[in-house]
Model the fold of this input.
Amino acid sequence: MRVLSIETSTDLGAVACVEAGALRAEVAASVRARHGERLFALLEQALDHAGWARADVDLVACGLGPGSFTGTRVGVAAAKGLALALDRPIRGVSSLVALALGAPGALLAPVADAHQGEVFLAVYERTAVGLLERLAPLHAGPEAALAALAPFGGAVVFGAGARRYPDVLCPMLPAIHDAPRAALIALEAEARFAAEGPHDRAALEPLYVRPSDAKLPC
Done:
């Protein structure tokens, strides 16, 4: 199966092409708030490096967040549009899961920066059959996040959110582990697609965890 994956929940936009579990191409760039301007150029670069046409894609995958509201919306919308245009199935994966997949350790606590004095976090246990969710994704201030992690002694705490509040959350891994890899989203999406089938293209939404700050006028 050929999987095209998109990840835009952080300042790093990334696209990967994975075939039969092997990485064919992965491109990433620091785009900050310019995901909408840069994403399709990254997508075309990844396809070109893999030697694929768009029609060669069997499954479209995307990171669902939590993370940047705008970035995640752009990535999920692009993945849904591509899946619709190609009439291909789509599967979303939590970006916190992707962070955990890329980090060493048995008990993992990825912490993403939620800005506004808050973080997103979750806890996963690595098992023989994959990651087991021990703490569902939530958002909290750094002190409340530390309290939520208290029952999980020995967890490896890492990520951009922990790095923003080092005196409270004490990140244990280098910054290279701060961004979810599109390649790992592709692998997880393929596994979940095989086990559970696709997501509904129309119904798939980002994993915001907290309400958006953008409000429609009354």
In short: The first helix runs from residue 35 to 50.
